[in-house]
Amino acid sequence: MESLLPLFDLCGTFVFALSGGVTAVQNRLDLFGVLVLSFAAANTGGIVRDLLMGATPPSALADARYLAVSLLAGVVTFFFLPVVNRLRSPVQLFDAAGLALFSVSGSLKAVEAGLGPVPSVLLGVCTGIGGGMARDLLVARTPIVLHAELYAMAALAGSAVVVCGRQLDLPASPVTVSGLVICFGLRILAIRKGWRLPVAKETTPWGRGES
User: Fold this and answer.
1) 135: nearest Cα among 10, 26, 38
2) For the chain, which terminal residue's Cβ has fewer other Cβ atoms within 10 angstroms, N or C?
């Protein structure tokens, strides 16, 4: 399973980079902006994960493959957006795939580093949501994780399945696949069905109490 971690990271990097590129094109950024957003969306979560684990320099900066994959996805999106857009809701689809891959790879990397169950789950969530938050902030919109249908909760569910499975010494491959399917499936179902956490109700502003 340790040998598969770089593969999961690179796959997550590519799909998150696609989501960043699509978002950039939709916001009419130039080629440089598309490449920047692709890299940020693809690598922010992994960089934060590695820094929190003390794994420096982060893989995204030390391994040229991450930069190459991010830039490739950005170029593909910039020049071949009609092909990418043939998929229904491409940003949401790529984002859900990247969320699943990064959440699972983040949790696995934390477990392999010897961290406990709770930190491993939290690092998986952080890895999954970091890229999407960076992407949204760079185009000046509220990050999806703060308001969309079960975004962080999907990452939490996938990470928890992987970590619990490893703690119970269950076969690694089925546990990993289960975590990926649960995270991706829950995110897509939440989008299709409109599942979301309760939203705070608007109240009377402070200092303007009822008379």
Assistant:
1) 38
2) C
Domain ranges of the chain: 2-193
Q: Can you give the C-alpha Rg of the chain in angstroms?
A: 18
Distance CA 81, CA 183 (A): 26
In angstroms, the CA 33 to CA 21 distance is: 9
> Could you tell me if 99 and 41 are in contact, meaning their C-beta atoms sit under 8 angstroms apart?
no
Query: Per-block average pLDDT, block size 10, for the chain (211 residues)?
Result: 68 85 90 94 90 87 91 90 69 80 89 90 92 91 81 92 93 90 92 80 59 43
Angstrom CA distances, 53 to 3, 11, 118, stand at 19, 21, 14
- The token duo for 182 is 């649960």
- Strands (DSSP E) along 109-206, which ranges? none
Place of tokens 């490449």: 35
C-alpha 34/C-alpha 77 separation (Å) is: 8
